[in-house]
Each structure stands twice: as structure tokens, then as C-alpha cells.
């Protein structure tokens, strides 16, 4: 699914009106109907009074139409209007249609409406058309709303928040919503940590927007979902066997961190690799062979860390990093790997930290290498980002410069491609914020890179999608607080089954 800019969202509305031969008022009615249906399902027995705050534009028109529908459905609803010299045509249309029985008042600085603990407030002040910070009465209304113990539902976008750019005045007034209900593709703002306190739980409703316009829209932003066919796992052929699905090498582990090697190997095995060999410190042999008997094991001459690179001839992909440590000898192994590898590489954890500490090694990255940093590791590879939007700029610049795929881990993990496209992930939950979760992802990416049927971007996106889906399956059994990285490994098989076509 593509993620559109605010300008493209406006163009999409116009294209829908033209392509489907409807009026803009009819499209607004669709949005209001979808919003009302969501409201009925979310607040089915609501007896508290509902306040709809309406601005002068089409976002306010959505609010007026919603108020009419809620009144018709038996909800106790009232409307407060933000005074303005001019209102949009569709706002005026829906103002005329509002039943006289719905109380309407004008907002005023000295008489803002009281908002008690049980109140439900619909924020329909400003939508995606906003381009400047809120000021004056609008800012006072937002401050009043944020200070109240009310439950807030934002229509399309919390007022004061920009859809696809950082706030022009950081710290300025922005509605803090419990829910944001949007229409069509999700907004980029929904996917970034800095906006979480404003967006709350977001929902996207389908109102039949013009798919042809969406297909033709030029955007670097995408949202990967479970049903997306372009990231599915191909079904295995009847006569496939272990060599068909690749032989992977995993370099992992150091003293006190053998668990990372065990988790990464387990995920690689569950991810469908045909054969797996792990190269681990000499002192980790018993641990590894006892816990992962399905894998072969090579041991390093050093007992506590890796100092040697085995012959790469037998392997279709190599992963390095989980629990690796950052000894000088290990850095030398990483450099040798970058200089000599002719097969796909997956780089994570301490291997990324070594790259960050020795940035001259970045020039050696083979094309289409997959790197899997969290935000801290990515910062060491690049620079400290001013905000989440700047970090996305850094991600795109990095992947294009080094012709690599970067899996920037987070709540909506962003997979950056060598052509500058970015794919946000839809699966996963906060329970996955636990030690070892990243090692599991590394093993899964490695398995899919060893599968010669998949390219680097396909493998990375599929691994991230399956990893998050495994987390969701696990959380359904254990709860988020009780989820461990080992649970993720156990649920990779069912997750990939659900993603196989």
C-alpha cells in the first residue's frame, strides 16, 4: 500500500470525484458514514454527551456530517464551531443539513466548553490541509482539549499535526487523540514515534477512493501488509530438498552472548534454510550443539570470540553479528568477509557497531547487503537525526549510496531499498521489545537470503513481516509482557505458513 503526501491526498479526492462522477459533498458523506460506522462499533453504548469540534474547512464539514449521523442514531451530540470569515462549500452544505435539534455554539476564548471525565470529543478542526502552526483561538481550544480528561477522536489527522513533515514549530499545540480515524492510505505521520502521543491508536477506513490514482502516484513511502502478494513466500516444489533451499553460514556469539547465536540459528532453521552451519567461539561449542542439533557447528581457535573466517565456498548466504563482540580480531574477520564474499551478506548487532566504529569499512559493503540496525546502531553508521523525518532522509541516502537494503527496526520497521523506496511494516507488537528479538530477525533474514528464489528486498520485507506476525501469534498466547525471543522462534513456522502462496 502506498503512503501519499498531503498534497497527493487532496489530489486523490479530486480524482475520485472526477473518475466516479460524484460530487465532493457525496464523497464527504462517504467519509462521514465510514466514520459513523467506526464510532458505532467503538462506542456502542455511549450515554455521555458527544462534542464535535468543527473547523471552517472540509475537516469541519466531516464533523458536521458525523454529528448529523450520530444524532440520527440516537447519540446525545452537540457541535462547537471555530469562527472564521469563510467556510468551504461542503462545510456550508453540511451545516444546512444539520438538524435544528443538535445544539450548536461558537467557540470563544472566554467560554470554552466544559469537558468532564466521561466526555467524548471529536476533533474535526483541521485536517491534512494545515500548513502552519495553530495560533490564537484554535491554539487555545487545543490546549483546553489536551488539559481535559476527555476521550478524543481525531478525524483524519489530529489538529495541528502535519501529515508528512515535522512540526514547523516543535512543541506547538497539537491535539492528543486516543483514536485517529483516517480515510484511504495511512498518513506518514502515523508511523513515526515522535507523533505517537498525538495520533493514539489509528484506524484507516475504506471510502472507495480512486485506485487508479493511487497506483500511478509517485511516492517513496509504502506500507506492507499481510495480504500483500509481492512479499509472499513461494510454495515449495514437490521435489525440493535441503540443497534447494540454500546453505547458510552464521558467524555469531562470544563469551556470555552465546544465546544470541542460538536464537539466530533457531530462527534461520525455522525460516526454512536447507542447511545451516554456525561458526562460534571454541568455548561455545557445547552450548550450540546441545541447543541447535539441526545445525552444523564450526569452532574458532579462540575460546571467547571469533577470530577466523571459514572458507565461504559451500554457502549461499552469510550472516554476521549476533552476540559477536567487538574485539580487534573480530573486526579483522568482518573486513575479510566484506572483501572476499561473493554471496549475499546479512549484517547485524556488533558487526554493525564495528562498521560504525570503523566507517572506512562501509566502502567495502557488497551491493545488496542487508543490514538490520536498531536506531542506535543506525545512528553510529550515519549521524544523530534531528527528528524521525530526518532519520528517514538519512535512511534513503544511506541505502542509495551503498546500494544496500537497511532494515531500520522499530514499531513500524522501515525497510530501505537501494532505489530510495521505504517500506514500513504493519505487523508486530510492543512485547517484541525484548532481548534477542533482533537476533531472531537476523536469522530469519539469513534463511530467506539463502533461498535463491528471493531477491534482497523481497527477503528483507518478508522476514520483517513474518517476524512481526510471529510476534503477534506469540503474544496471543503469552501476552505481550510474557513474550520472549524464544517464543518468536517457535512461531516463525506458522507465520511463514500464513504468508506462503
Question: How is this structure best described in words?
Answer:
(6S)-NADPHX binds at residues 58-62, 127-133, 156, 260, 323, 374, 439. Residues 9-215 form the YjeF N-terminal domain. By secondary structure, the protein is α/β, with parallel strands linked by helices. The protein folds into 2 domains: 6-219, YjeF N-terminal domain (Rossmann fold); 243-498, UDP-N-acetylmuramoyl-L-alanine:D-glutamate ligase. It is built from 16 helices and 17 strands. The chain has helices spanning 6-20, 24-42, 58-72, 89-97, 136-147, 196-199, 211-216, 258-270, 285-291, 328-340, 349-357, 375-381, 388-402, 437-450, 456-478, 485-498, and strands at 50-54, 77-81, 104-106, 120-124, 151-155, 179-183, 201-205, 221-224, 247-251, 275-280, 296-299, 317-320, 345-347, 370-371, 405-408, 414-416, 422-425. The chain has a 10-stranded mixed β-sheet, sandwiched between helices. β1 (50-54), α3 and β2 (77-81) form a beta-alpha-beta unit. α3 runs parallel beside α4, α8 packs parallel to α16 and α14 runs parallel beside α16 (485-498). The longest helix is centred in the C-terminal third of the chain and has 23 residues, at 456-478. The two termini are 19 Å apart. The model has no long low-confidence stretch (mean pLDDT 96).
Number of strands: 17
CATH architectural type of the largest domain: 3-Layer(aba) Sandwich
User: Could you tell me the mean pLDDT?
Assistant: 96
Strand content: 5-15%
Q: Identify the CATH class of the largest domain.
A: Alpha Beta
Q: Please estimate the helix content.
A: 25-40%
Do you know the CATH topology of the largest domain? UDP-N-acetylmuramoyl-L-alanine:D-glutamate ligase
State the shape. elongated
CATH superfamily of the largest domain: Ribokinase
Largest sheet: 10 strands, mixed
- Report how far the terminal alpha carbons are from each other: 19 Å
Amino acid at each position: 500500500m502506498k503512503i501519499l503526501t498531503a498534497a497527493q491526498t487532496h489530489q486523490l479526492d479530486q480524482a475520485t470525484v472526477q473518475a466516479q462522477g460524484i460530487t465532493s459533498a457525496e464523497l464527504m458523506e462517504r467519509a462521514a458514514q465510514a466514520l459513523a460506522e467506526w464510532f458505532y462499533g467503538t462506542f456502542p453504548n455511549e450515554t455521555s454527551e458527544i462534542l464535535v469540534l468543527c473547523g471552517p474547512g472540509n475537516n469541519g464539514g466531516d464533523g458536521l456530517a458525523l454529528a448529523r449521523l450520530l444524532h440520527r442514531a440516537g447519540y446525545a451530540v452537540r457541535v462547537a464551531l471555530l469562527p472564521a470569515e469563510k467556510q468551504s462549500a461542503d462545510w456550508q452544505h453540511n451545516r444546512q443539513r444539520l438538524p435544528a435539534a443538535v445544539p450548536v455554539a461558537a467557540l470563544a476564548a472566554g467560554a470554552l466548553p466544559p469537558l468532564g471525565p466521561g466526555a467524548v470529543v471529536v476533533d474535526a478542526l483541521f485536517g491534512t490541509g494545515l500548513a502552519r502552526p495553530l495560533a490564537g483561538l484554535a491554539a487555545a481550544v487545543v490546549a483546553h482539549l489536551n488539559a481535559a480528561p476527555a476521550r478524543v477522536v481525531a478525524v483524519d489527522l489530529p489538529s495541528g499535526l502535519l501529515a508528512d513533515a515535522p512540526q514547523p514549530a516543535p512543541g506547538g499545540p497539537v491535539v492528543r487523540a486516543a483514536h485517529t480515524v483516517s480515510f484511504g492510505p495511512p498518513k506518514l505521520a502515523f508511523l513515526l514515534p515522535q507523533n505517537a502521543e498525538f495520533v493514539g491508536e489509528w484506524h484507516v477506513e475504506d471510502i472507495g477512493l480512486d485506485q487508479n490514482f493511487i497506483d500511478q502516484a509517485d511516492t517513496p513511502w509504502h506500507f506492507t501488509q499481510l495480504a500483500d502478494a509481492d512479499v509472499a513466500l513461494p510454495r515449495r516444489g514437490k521435489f525440493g530438498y535441503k540443497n534447494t533451499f540454500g546453505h547458510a553460514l552464521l558467524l555469531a556469539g562470544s563469551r556470555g552472548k552465546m544465546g544470541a547465536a542460538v536464537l539466530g540459528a533457531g530462527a534461520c532453521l525455522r525460516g526454512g534454510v536447507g542447511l545451516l552451519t554456525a561458526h562460534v567461539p571454541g568455548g561455545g561449542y557445547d552450548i550450540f550443539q546441545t541447543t541447535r542439533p539441526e545445525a552444523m557447528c564450526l569452532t574458532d581457535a579462540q575460546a571467547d570470540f571469533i577470530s577466523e573466517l571459514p572458507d565461504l565456498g559451500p554457502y549461499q548466504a552469510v550472516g554476521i553479528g549476533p552476540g559477536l563482540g567487538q574485539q580487534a580480531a573480530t573486526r579483522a574477520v568482518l573486513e575479510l568477509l566484506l572483501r572476499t564474499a561473493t554471496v549475499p551478506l546479512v549484517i547485524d548487532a556488533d558487526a554493525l557497531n564495528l562498521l560504525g566504529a570503523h566507517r572506512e569499512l562501509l566502502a567495502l559493503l557488497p551491493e545488496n547487503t542487508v543490514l538490520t540496525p536498531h536506531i542506535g546502531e543506525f545512528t553510529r553508521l550515519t549521524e544523530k537525526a534531528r527528528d524521525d523525518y530526518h532519520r528517514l532522509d538519512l535512511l534513503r541516502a544511506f541505502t542509495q549510496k551503498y546500494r544496500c537494503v537497511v532494515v531500520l527496526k522499530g514499531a513500524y520497521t522501515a525497510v530501505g531499498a537501494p532505489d530510495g523506496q521505504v517500506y514500513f511494516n504493519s505487523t508486530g507488537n510492543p512485547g517484541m521489545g525484548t532481548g534477542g528479538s533482533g537476533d531472531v530477525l537476523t536469522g530469519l533474514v539469513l534463511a530467506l537470503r539463502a533461498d535463491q528464489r528471493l531477491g534482497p528486498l523481497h527477503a528483507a520485507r518478508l522476514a520483517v513481516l513474518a517476524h512481526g506476525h510471529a510476534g503477534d501469534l506469540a503474544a496471543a498466547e503469552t501476552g505481550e509482557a510474557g513474550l520472549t525471543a524464544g517464543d518468536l522462534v517457535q512461531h516463525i513456522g506458522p507465520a511463514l505458513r500464513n504468508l506462503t502462496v
